[in-house]
Protein: Gnk2-homologous domain-containing protein
Organism: Hibiscus trionum
Amino acid sequence: MSCSRIFVFFVYHLTLAFLLQKAFGAYNCFNSEIFPANSPDEANLNGLISTLSTQTPQTGFGQASVGQSPNRVHGLALCAAYMSSSNCQTCVEQAGNEIRNNCPYNKGAIAWTNRNGDCLLKYSNVEFFGQVDNQNKVFYQNPNTAVNPAAFTLQTNGLLLQLSDQGSVRPNRSASGELQVYGLAQCTGDLSSSACKQCLDELIGGTLPTCCNGKEGGRVFSGSCTLQYETFRFI
Ligand SMILES: *[C@@H]1O[C@H](CO)[C@@H](O)[C@H](O)[C@H]1NC(C)=O
C-alpha cells in the first residue's frame, strides 16, 4: 500500500510524552514511485543522509544534493532551536533511519523525529529547495484546555505572528519569544524571507485553529517550517 497520502497526526499527553519519548515520530512517503534496490539512487540517498547528519548540527539546518542526474537526490534537515548539536545529530540520524525503514525505496519522503518532532529530514528526487511545503504536515496537541480559551488563543496568535515576522527575516529563519506563552517559529534555511513568512502564517492561520484552538500547547511541523507554543518554558 502506498503511504503517500497518509498524514500522521498524534495527540499526546504531556506526562506520557516524557515517558515514551522514543515512541513518537511521524513520516510520510510522499512520492509513491520507487527506485530499484542497489541502484545509484539508493547509494545517493545514503550519501545524502550521511551528509545531512554531519552538516545539520553545525547550524541547525542542512541542505545538500548528491549524485548525477537522473539519480540525483536532494534533501534538507532542520533541528529545533532548543537542541544541542549532539542531540541534533542523533535526531537527524534517527530520521534517516526512519525513512530508510519505512519508505525504503520511495523517491521522496519526510520524517519528523523525537518526542515533539525535534527534527525533520526530507528528500526527493525532484529538486524542491525554496518552495513552501505545507502539504506534508504533522501536529501534536497539548490536550489541556486553557482557562480562558478565546483570550489565550488571541494572545498566542499575537506572539506567533510576531515570531513569524521576526524569524522570517533573520538569516537563521528562527525566532523564539514569550508573551504569557512560550513560542518558537522556524523555517528551513532554503526559504526566502517571504516564503518563510508565508509558510508560518499558513500554519498560524490554517493549521493551529484546527489542531490546537484554545489548547495550552501546540506544535505544528510541515516540510518547510515549524511552530511550537506551550505555557511552560520548553525552549
Ligand atoms: C537566530 O538568530 C538570532 C539573532 O539573529 C539569535 O538570537 C537566535 O539565537 C538564533 N537562533 C538559532 C536557533 O540559532
